[in-house]
Amino acid sequence: MASSCLSTKPFLGASRTDGLRSGLCYLSSDLLRPSVQISVRNNALKKLLIQAAGSTHGNLFRVTTFGESQGGAVGCVIDGCPPRIHLSEADVQFDLDRRRPCQSQITTPRKETDKCQILSGIYEGVTTGTPITVLVPNTDQRLHHYGEMSIAYRPSHADATYDMKYGVRSIQDPAFVFVHILMYQMFAEGGGRSSARETIGRVAAGAVAKKILKRLTGTERGVMDYLLLEILGYVSQVHKVVLPEDLVDYDALTLEQIESNLVRCPDPEYAEKMIGAIDAVRLKRNSIGGVVTCIVRGCPRGLGSPVFDKLEAQLAKALMSIPATKGFEIGSGFLGTLLTGSEHNDEFFTDDHGKIRTRTNCSGGIQGGVSNGEIINMRIAFKPTATIGIKQQTVTRDKKPIELRALDRHDPCILPRAVPVVEAMVALVLVDELMAQHAQCNLFPINPDLQEPLFLPMQCPSRDG
């Protein structure tokens, strides 16, 4: 009887024991006699260790961000983008401009143009299906601002926990850094990978995802009688200034309303209150947080999978990966705990077009982890910006107490610039889920009695657009 087994040499860092063979002692000797053996050399074990990277999002539409706050550049690599999609740097730049620093007196004074360069994946204005690389150079690095921070842990930053995890940081001695600046070797400084500048790669990739969604749902081609998928984020709370939910009509909300003021709040009266709150704390060299609300109109039905890959779970993971996020709600959220089942349940009805709809939307457009076609509404809480201009007590890397005060290059409130980041992460999730839904449930003809087509037939784009 032929049989095979693995060598009992340790794999992926396992201890060198004979536990496997001793644990199988009740099997016959024939079963334990190997006909195939895999030998692993001791010096190769370290190469087999799996290290978590955490810089890639998505399964089919995969995005990897790169770069650091005070490094030479930031950006992303997008893998899995469909071919023959019209795409230009201008498409990406629009959302990058919404995210960039130094937009107004209520954002960080760091002066970055955030001009993007598409280095690969595009030929004659259309995507080729190969990886797309988007690069955004950093132009306003000030490494000398981080001299004291190179030895001290900034309160509520990732400095201490990165040391605890990796045992090394990229902050360099100021004199050492200066030498390397002369050699054009930019080292990761400031917040490094935990800095909000990392989100540039997310926004760039999100802009590509939005382009795909527009193409799929017909909105880019002016088709007005079909699914109009829109992702709209706005600031709904700054510190104690809370925009009442009933003042925003989700069906009529527009990007123009949101972009009409510095804080990206669709209500002019509350926008002024929010701007006043941010400006007041800015003058005190302090910071405040708040909430970004994001809605998805026209989301196709059927996105998301049962159990571990529910759509709200994917959205929560994506949105909670944004720097400074502290909470996520969808639909009724935590307020739903105050309702009874009869108050919370969304009753079904058939509309005038013969579609099954819900009269209320406590579920937030997702039921059983799957989108039902109603508006998806989410709220994401952001903490106050950790970098402030007030002296704080902390300790150095060698555990000595020290007083630390950051220089004034921070957002007094991150919320206005967080809006396009939130939209980007939602777009990335939706494109990935659309691809998965098409591959599993729409690859073959659908059941028209229960299902709807995901998107319109696409034509190959002409060279003139």
From TrEMBL:
Q: Which residues form a coiled coil?
A: none
Q: Mind listing the GO molecular function terms for this protein?
A: chorismate synthase activity; FMN binding
Q: Which UniProt keywords apply?
A: Amino-acid biosynthesis, Aromatic amino acid biosynthesis, Lyase
InterPro entries associated with the record: Chorismate_synth, Chorismate_synth_AroC_sf, Chorismate_synthase_CS
Biological or metabolic pathway of the protein: Metabolic intermediate biosynthesis; chorismate biosynthesis; chorismate from D-erythrose 4-phosphate and phosphoenolpyruvate: step 7/7
Work out whether the entry's keyword set contains Amino-acid biosynthesis: yes
Q: What is this protein called?
A: chorismate synthase
Tell me which species this is from: Morella rubra
